Amino acid sequence: EISAWGSLVARRERNLRQLYPTGTSKVYGYVTNSKVKFVMVVDSSNTALRDNEIRSMFRKLHNSYTDVMCNPFYTPGDRIQSRAFDNMVTSMMIQVC
Amino acid sequence: MSRPAHQRPAYHKINKDLFVLTYGALVAQLCKDYEKDEDVNQYLDKMGYGIGTRLVEDFLARSCVGRCHSYSEITDIIAQVAFKMYLGITPSVTCNNSSRNEFSLILDKNPLVEFVEELPAGRSSLCYCNLLCGIIRGALEMVHLAADVTFLQDRLKGDSVTEIGITFLKKREEKKYRRKK
């Protein structure tokens, strides 16, 4: 697992990579150049999701995460309790499920 | 670098995010330093006052506004010229009483609170943008107008709009009318 992340970080792009193709689900990882990691678990039965859609979902997550970081009352490392972030995640999930 | 003596230097654009984050850091630090919301609000107002007394010179030099003849004119200039110049927004103005010395600025957008969704727990009486009240109060005082400036409504506290109330305190001396006696 660590080596999978390591190779992701080593690539200069903030790439997404399928981490473990398992029987029931696919796991995608996205790491930023600030070493923040996002993980997405997708049910295997969902064959409609394409790579570029996953990539754009990660980008939306990254943008919303940046907004959360800009909240002066948010301490990095805290659990994210932002309504805007939750709304973005919910609307993304509704779109693909 | 030489320029004509009468010209104020042109504005250099900086990233608004840096400004907004700096303001947020200021408020967050005050919240760490002072337990009571009233203390934080008071210090924000004091800091704003210090800024306003200085900023008004810059404002008058850049805007070249003429002499105002009424409180309503002054409030309009604060909303349409000063807010536009320094924050890029134009609040709307309403007059709150018949003696025309109480006004409200209704802020539709407020760039300072862009990344703050709501006040943190335990900080429900915090006036996040109280610096603005101090700035207005300090600026008015430098042009010999005493005023009370407070937040009447705040979207961060759950109100539907953000409203700054300006109450002009003393009647301005109009010496030219006294001479008629």
Q: For the largest sheet of chain B, list the strands in their spatial order.
A: 1-2-4-3
- CATH superfamily membership of chain B, which one? Trafficking protein particle complex subunit 3
CATH architecture of chain A: 2-Layer Sandwich
Distance between the termini of chain A: 27 Å
Q: Sum up the overall morphology of chain A in one term.
A: globular
Helix vs. strand class of chain B: alpha+beta
Mean pLDDT of chain B: 89
Low-confidence stretches of chain B: 175-181
Structural class of chain A: alpha+beta
Taking the sheet with the most strands of chain A, its summary is: 3 strands, antiparallel
Estimate the strand proportion of chain B: 5-15%
CATH fold name of chain B: Muramoyl-pentapeptide Carboxypeptidase, domain 2
Structure description:
- Chain A is an alpha+beta fold and 97 residues long.
- Chain A has one domain: Beta-Lactamase (2-Layer Sandwich).
- Chain A is 43% helix and 21% strand.
- Chain A contains 3 helices and 3 strands.
- In chain A, strands 1-2-3 form a 3-stranded antiparallel β-sheet.
- The radius of gyration of chain A is 14 Å and the shape is globular.
- By secondary structure, chain B is α+β, with helices and mostly antiparallel strands.
- Chain B has a single domain (16-113, 126-168), classed as 2-Layer Sandwich (Muramoyl-pentapeptide Carboxypeptidase, domain 2).
- Helices cover 44% and strands 13% of the residues of chain B.
- Chain B is built from 5 helices and 4 strands.
- Chain B has helices at residues 16-33, 37-63, 71-87, 130-142, 175-178, and strands spanning 92-95, 102-107, 147-153, 162-168.
- In chain B, strand 1 and strand 2 (102-107) form a beta hairpin.
- In chain B, helix 2 (37-63) packs across helix 4 (130-142).
- Chain B starts with 15 loop residues before the first helix and ends with a helix.
- Residues 175-181 of chain B have low confidence and may be disordered.
- The interface between A and B is small, with 8 and 15 residues.
- Chain B: Homodimer. Component of the multisubunit TRAPP (transport protein particle) complex, which includes at least TRAPPC2, TRAPPC2L, TRAPPC3, TRAPPC3L, TRAPPC4, TRAPPC5, TRAPPC8, TRAPPC9, TRAPPC10, TRAPPC11 and TRAPPC12.
- Chain B: Keywords: Endoplasmic reticulum, ER-Golgi transport, Golgi apparatus, Lipoprotein, Palmitate, Transport.
- Chain B: Belongs to the TRAPP small subunits family. BET3 subfamily.
- Chain B: One of its GO terms (cellular component) is endoplasmic reticulum.
- Chain B: It is found in: Endoplasmic reticulum; Golgi apparatus, cis-Golgi network.
